[in-house]
Amino acid sequence: xxxxxxxxxxxxxxxxxxARLESALGKLEGVSEARVSFLxxxxxxxxxxxxxxxxxxxxxxxxxSAAPRDRSLSFTALQAKRDAAALSRVRNWRLRAGLGICxxxxxxxxxxxxxxxxxxxxxxxxxxxxxxxxxxxVGWGIFVSAWTxxxxxxxxxxxxxxxxxxxxxxxxxxxxxxxxxxxxFAEVVALLAIISLGHWLEARGVREAGDAVRALMDLKPxxxxxVAPDRVIPAALVRIGDLVRVRPGGRVAVDGIVxxxxxxxxxxxxxxxxxxxxxxxxxxxxxxxxAIDGGLIVRATVSGDETTIERIATLVHEAQSSRAPxxxxxxxxxxxxxxxxxxxxxxxxxxxxxxxxxxxxxxxATTVLxxxxxxxxxIATPLAVMVGTGECARRGILLRxxxxxxxxxxxxxxxxxxxxxxxxxxPTVRAYAQEPGAPEDTLALAAALESRSEHPVARxxxxxxxxxxxxxxxxxxxxxxxxxxQMHLWSQPATFEVRExxxxxxxGVSGIVQGRAVRxxxxxxxxxxxxxxxxxxxxxxxxxxxxxGSAEAVSQLRAHGLRIVVLTGDRRAQALEAAxxxxxxxxxxxxxxxxxxxLQRVSAAGVGSVMVGDGINDAAALAAADxxxxxxxxxDVASASASSALLNNDLRSLGWMLWACKGTMAxxxxxxxxxxxxxxxxIPLAALGxxxxxxxxxxxSAMGLSDVCVVGNTLRLRWKLRESAPAEQxxxx
Length: 733
Hints:
With 733 residues, the protein is of the alpha+beta class. The chain contains 24 helices and 28 strands.
C-alpha cells in the first residue's frame, strides 16, 4: 500500500537545494513521488514500506538532514516551530545585511579617499582586515553552505556567491601584496552586504506570503474555560464531551454542539461569510468563531488539537508546499543552472586569459558567478502559490494543491449540480398524494425508511411526516437506529423496525419496514413515489429554494467566458424551474441523470472542466473533473473527491476564485519572465566585461534587485487579492 510521509528538512539554503534533494529522493527504491519545498523546509514522499531510514540517508548524502514529522506535536505546535524558524531566518539575514553595510560604507570611503590620509601599506592592511572580517561575519553561512554542498559532490546557489567573493578577495590580496593597486576589498564587502540585504528582503517576503496559516491559527484561543470543573485550561487539552463556556464577545475554543445559550456568531474568519448566524442549543459551532451578542456553553465534539481551524490550516499548508505543473520547467533549470554557470565562468576566465588580460578575465568570471545566481527563479512559482492559496483560504475557498490553481485558471466549462449547490439543499414537501386503497400508515413507513438516508429529499420526507403527526418523537434523526421506533403514528401504537435497508444512488431507497417491502424511488411525474409491497402507494413532490447569490454567480461565470451546464438527477421540469430563475437556458440543463451519467458528461468535457457539487452522487464527477469543487455543506465523500471546497457555501466565490487563480498564474508567469530575462541579459554582459571594474558590485545589486522584483510582484498579487471585492473583479491582476 502506498503511503505519504512528511519530513522536516534542515540545511537547505536555496531552491536548487530542494531540486537536488527531490531528485535524490525520487530515485529511491519504493518511492513513487517526492516533493521538496524550500520555502516550507519540508519533503512529502510517497511510496511503500518504511521510508524514514532511506529518506534520512538520502538527505544526509546530499548534505541535509530529514526527520519524519513529529506526530506527537499538534499542528499548532508544529506551525509555531516553523514560524520561529522563518522569523529566525529573517532576523539572521537582517543582522548580516546590517553588519555588511556598516563595514562596507567605511571601507568604500577608505578605498576612494584613504590614500590621502594613509600610506599604501596602511590602507591595504585596513581594507584587507575589514574585508576578511566581513567574509567571516557576513559571508560565513554562505561559505559553509557552499562547502557542505561541495563535500557531497554537489553545488547550490551559494556556491556561485562563495566562489565570486573568494575570487574577488583573492585577487585583491594578490594585487595588494604586489603593490599593483587597491584591489576589490570594498567591492567584496559590498557584494556580501547587498546579497545579504536581498536575502533579508526575500525571507521577509516569504514570511509575509505565508501569513494566511498564521492568521488561521491566531483565531483559535490559547485557553478554554471549562464548566465542570470550573477552571481554565489550555485549549489543546480540551477533550471530547467537555463543556466549555464562551462568554459574549469571546471566541469558541473547540468544535462542538451548543449545549446552552443563544448567540449570533461571526463566521467570517473561517468561511468568509459576512453575515452573523444565530446558533441555539443543538447548533454546531467551530473553533475560532466569535459569539457576538450572547454567551454559550459548548459540548466539545473533537479534542482541542483536532479542530476545524487546524484541519483547514493543515490543508492550506499542504497546498502551499505543493508544486504547480508550470514549476517543473523552473525546477529543471535550477537543477542544471549552477553547473552551467560554473562552466560559463570558467570559459570567461579562459577566454580573457587567451586574449591576454587574465585579471580582467577573473573579474568578469567573478561577475558571472554573482550575477547569475538563480534565487529569483527558485522562488518565482512557490511564492505566488503561497499567496494564492492563502488569500483564497481567507475568503473561505480551500485549494488542496497548486495544481488546482493552474487547472482552474484554464477553466472552460463549469458543471453545476442543482440540489445543494444551486439550491439550498433543504427541499420541502409541496404535495403529497396518496393513492386510494393505500395503507393508512404509508407516509410513516416511508419516513421510517428515509430516516436511514442522507439524501436531502429523505430529510424532507421525514420532516413532512413529523409535521403531519405531532406525536412523532422530536429526537428522530436521520441515520438513527431508533428512528420511528416506539412511536404513536396515526394515533396507533406501532414499532417501526427497518431491515435490509439499501440505497441506490440516483434511484432511491428500499427496505423491509414492519414486515412490508417499502421503496421510495424516483418518479417521472413527481419527485418520488412510495411503493408498498410492489404497489404504488403515494407520490411526493418537493421544492427547493435557490441559494442567495446563485443568479449573480452564474452571471459572473458567464462574464469570464465560461460555458454553464447544470447536471442533476432531479426531474427535468423541476430542474428547468430552478434554472430559469437563475438565468440558465433550457439547453444548458441536463436532468434525470444517474451518478454514472454525470461522470460520463464531465469526463467527455476533457480539459478545462470544473464540477461543483455536494452530494454522494456527485463524488465520481468531482473526482473526474479537472477541478472538483465541493460545497462546504456537502457530504464527506464529496469533499474527499474534490480538489477544492467552498467553505462559505457561496457560489459567488466561484467567480472570485477563478479571478484569483488566473491572477496567481499571471504572477507566476511574470515572475518566471523576470528571472529568465534577467539571467539571459545579465550573463552575456558580465562575461564580456561590459559591467566595468565594479562588475561584482553591480552584479550583486542586480541579483538582489531581481529577488526584490519577484517578491514585490508577488506581494502586489497579495495586495490585489486582499483588497479586491469579488463581485467587481473580471480580469486577473
